[in-house]
Amino acid sequence: DEFEFETPGLTDNLRDDHGFDSIDAIELLAKIEEMLGYQISRKEKEKAMSIRTINDILDYIETIQAAHNN
Fold first, then answer.
1. pLDDT confidence of residue 70
2. Residue 5 near residue 18, CB atoms below 8 Å
3. What is the per-residue DSSP string for 10-69?
4. Could you report the per-residue pLDDT of 52-67, keeping only the tens digit for each?
5. Which region, left, alpha or beta, applies to residue 19 given φ > 0 means left and ψ of -120 to 50 means alpha?
6. Which of 8, 47, 56, 68 to pair with 21, CA 20 to 30 A apart?
7. Nearest-CA neighbor of 29 among 17, 8, 44?
8. What angle do CA 16, 18, 24 make, to 5 degrees?
9. Contact yes or no for 22/43 (Cβ under 8 A)
């Protein structure tokens, strides 16, 4: 509901196919932090710059969780 594009497929390019922009990226990171219950480090946020698909988002969240669980 919060993002300004139609529901993407798992492999759709969010930027090219759905107009995902920098504001959407900031909102996404805020939602991920809220979901995880902790603030994402600057280094982890920089890694988010490579996110292009829903699958990338899922991989990103798994990587962050694994790092924080160690």
1. 80
2. yes
3. TTS-HHHHH---HHHHHHHHHHHHHHHTSPPPHHHHHHGGG--SHHHHHHHHHHHHHHHH
4. 999 999 999 999 999 9
5. left
6. 68
7. 44
8. 100
9. no
Sign of CA dihedral 30, 3, 52, 70: positive
> Which pair of tokens denotes residue 70?
């160690």
**Cα pseudo-dihedral 57, 61, 66, 67, rounded to 10:** 100
**Tens digit of pLDDT for each residue in 21-47?**
889 999 999 999 999 999 999 999 999
Q: Is the dihedral of CA 36, 39, 41, 42 positive or negative?
A: positive
Which is it for the CA torsion 69, 14, 45, 43, positive or negative?
Answer: positive
Work out the burial of residue 70: count CB atoms within 10 Å of its CB; fewer than 13 is exposed, 13-18 middle, 19 or more buried: exposed
